[in-house]
Specification:
9% strand, 6 strands, Histone, subunit A, 2 domains, 6-stranded parallel β-sheet, Rossmann fold
């Protein structure tokens, strides 16, 4: 008798520019299934070039979900993403017992696989107040506020990530209790099995790919895309690599050549942070992007064990 009749969620993670999109599309075509994006930068319909969204041809090859489904004006967080994915998956599993979840946003991946603690959404005026502080006084002020409200969380938080700081402050100031005391970190039961695949490359090769991608973005018109968002630059969705560096150029703070180099540097740093996040997960099976046969065999063998 089979040990498990649960459907299977195949998770593909890795740093930016490693080749997750191409690998996932090839695998989805082999498995005749769909792709759910877990790249929080690709959620926004208005952002295209700077977020390295799948292009029209790629989107036509395989059905994608959670790509361009939001506006930059929308409020969205990891809890809502978890709920949206869990609501969608049953209907997808009815058509195919295997679905792909692909992306580089570690917290969003973890939320789907293991769950996330339930916190109340903050009042809109509090959210706007904190975002105003970020815009007017910078991320250092958020760090200062979090040190006051929850120093324990600040010790282990990514203090360079404004989204993490904003969320922690929202919870602290909404509930009146430290965020760190409310995080249970208890995995939730899922009605599907999960297998995790990590993609990586030698560091020099990965960094070269990052540089090439940034150059391609600039050739494709990233500067014009950023110019079109000048009136919206205060929005949280635009406080991200590739946009904020070019805003600095448009403000006359740096030359264009320096701004482009800053994008490459900050993208490399982002890739390092992604790898640090994913390397802590012992369930991830690591491959290089071109190891298609190894990835496919891993999934086949995993299924054989489940139905043995």
């Amino acid at each position: 008798m089979a040990n498990s009749f649960k459907p299977l969620l195949v998770v593909i993670v890795g740093p930016t520019a490693v080749g997750k999109t191409t690998t996932a599309i090839n695998l989805a075509k082999t498995l005749n299934t769909v792709i759910l994006s877990a790249d929080s930068r690709q959620f926004y319909a208005e952002l295209s070039i700077g977020t390295a969204k799948p292009d029209t041809d790629q989107l036509n090859e395989v059905q994608h979900y959670f790509v361009g489904h939001l506006s930059v004006h929308d409020y969205y967080n990891v809890s809502r993403f978890e709920a949206d994915v869990l609501q969608l998956l049953p209907s997808l599993f009815e058509k195919n017992p295997v679905v792909l979840l692909v992306g580089g946003s570690g917290l969003y991946i973890d939320a789907v696989c293991n769950g996330i603690d339930d916190f109340p959404d903050p009042a809109p005026d509090l959210r706007n107040y904190l975002k105003g502080i970020l815009v007017d006084e910078g991320i250092g002020k958020l760090v200062e506020l979090l040190r006051k409200h929850d120093p324990a969380y600040l010790e282990k938080a990514d203090a360079a990530n404004p989204n993490r700081l904003l969320r922690a402050l929202e919870v602290c100031m909404t509930s009146g209790k430290p965020y760190s005391l409310q995080r249970m970190n208890q995995p939730k039961t899922r009605d599907f099995d999960v297998i995790k695949i990590g993609l990586n490359l030698p560091r020099e090769e990965l960094f070269n790919r990052i540089g090439q991608r940034v150059d391609q973005m600039m050739t494709a018109g990233l500067l014009d895309e950023v110019k079109s968002f000048l009136p919206l630059r205060h929005l949280n969705a635009l406080n991200t690599v590739g946009y904020k560096e070019l805003f600095a150029y448009l403000d006359g703070e740096v030359l264009l050549e320096r701004a482009v180099e800053n994008i490459k540097t900050n993208t490399r740093r982002y890739a390092k942070r992604q790898l640090t996040w994913f390397k802590r997960d012992q369930e991830i099976n690591w491959f290089e992007p071109l190891e298609k046969e190894g990835i496919h065999n891993l999934i086949l063998n995993f299924n054989k064990k489940r139905f043995r």
